[in-house]
């Protein structure tokens, strides 16, 4: 899960929305702070909920809310990322129980009976089938559909070679996802060793009748193209979710960036212990800390450089050293910028006042920036030493990570030599002014940009770096429209497999690479090969080769691997952390006076 991506950056895993009471933050009182409302959980985060449509959203905070409201066929077993438990499927498929075929291509999911959606309608296998078809075929620009398109249909997009929707895909999808009795059967074109991780992570089940009633796709072949790539606010479930989960939407004030979910009292399993969860966006770190101190927030999202401040507050617990499955704080340059009315490139030429549109297409420019960044200073100032150098787009601790992979080191001397080679020496001689953008409210990214500015500008008085803080959606729009020369972002993983971290950065059709204009046929070949390789040893070597390509080509600048930390009041109980749901699955959570 961008996840997707943008705006979804957690302090311990990604991403973004704050939950806090609509009260002004009070200074920390001297008397012990009491929990003011034991039945409601107030969560203060940074960033904003983008959409509550599971087939449209692709950011961490939206995904957090969706995990509470909707449900998948199977779920992760507690804190494990490789063991599963039944959810809307009453059995987890395996070859031992006959629900995965011997060739690993057919998965059978027997659907639970007696489950109801929030509107009272009953869950059926047709709802499950419809949910998968809709997730595949909606395929909104820079959305999550590709996560299932390749495993199930063998394509990365619903667009054909002519750039138009491929009409044949509906028939392929209908054949791949079928109902057999009370079960839904998914047949893959090739083995996908991480398929159950995908099923546990993406494509929760929606109500077909509800979606159609609210203007969504009717499920028919002749109409699917009309509903493909919708405008966010016009996707049927944008602000009208109807899931089977333990919570349901009660209130969403988009202007105030506040969202409340209430307990589903008709939930098919044991009811949640909390009556409500309130998410409220609080981008200012000091206010987040103040709300935590006063007891007006039960949990907050917090970056590592502020953890010591939180730990010093009486009655606050900081649980540190949790695994963090994200590609953390990556500088992403755009190789071919759109020069039309683009104020981010200044003069548009190498004259000290701007950059040409193909500035970052030169590998020596990219190397120069990578060599000018002080990684050790970033680890010390931003993480108190609680991080280490990233070795590419596979996070430490994940299968396929190569601990021996070389890295680009901070070296002003090497950076000088790289810039002197760039664009036939004109970069060094003429100088430049370049813009780097980051999402407002993320202090770690701000620090990284400031260190990059300091390192680059120290090399040559003709070098200038403008650092701009932007709203996440504005930064994302500037990036996808190829107007932002460089931005810093992080990729929160949608499922715990390196297929999800290398594809967006290094595949020519990947989330970032496609916008950047980066393409490596060798990388594409290894990525596709690793997706379907069932031999663990061979798959590991594929990912080691992919890491080496990232080091050689410098398509992005990877900074650090760090850890997740949870910051809550001590009265919070049964907070179970899973790296894929880093904001927390709140079904079991309660508060104790």
Which structural class do the helices and strands define?
A: alpha+beta
Beta-strand percent range: 15-25%
How much helical structure, as a percent, in the residues?
25-40%
The domain tally reads 3
Name the CATH homologous superfamily of the largest domain: Dipeptide-binding Protein, Domain 3
In angstroms, what is the radius of gyration?
Answer: 24 Å
- Enumerate the spans where pLDDT stays under 50 for 5 or more consecutive residues: 1-27
Biggest sheet character = 7 strands, mixed
Would you give an account of this structure?
By secondary structure, the chain is of the alpha+beta class. The chain folds into three domains: 1-69 and 245-324 and 564-593, Periplasmic binding protein-like II (D-Maltodextrin-Binding Protein, domain 2); 74-220, Dipeptide-binding Protein, Domain 1 (Dipeptide-binding Protein, domain 1, Alpha-Beta Complex); 326-561, Dipeptide-binding Protein, Domain 3 (Dipeptide-binding Protein, domain 3), CATH 3.10.105. The protein is built from 18 helices and 21 strands. The strands form six sheets. A seven-stranded mixed sheet has the order 7-8-9-1-10-19-11, sandwiched between helices. A five-stranded mixed sheet has the order 15-14-16-12-17. It is globular. The protein starts with 39 loop residues before the first strand and ends with a strand. The relative contact order is 0.17. Mean pLDDT is 93; it is low at 1-27.
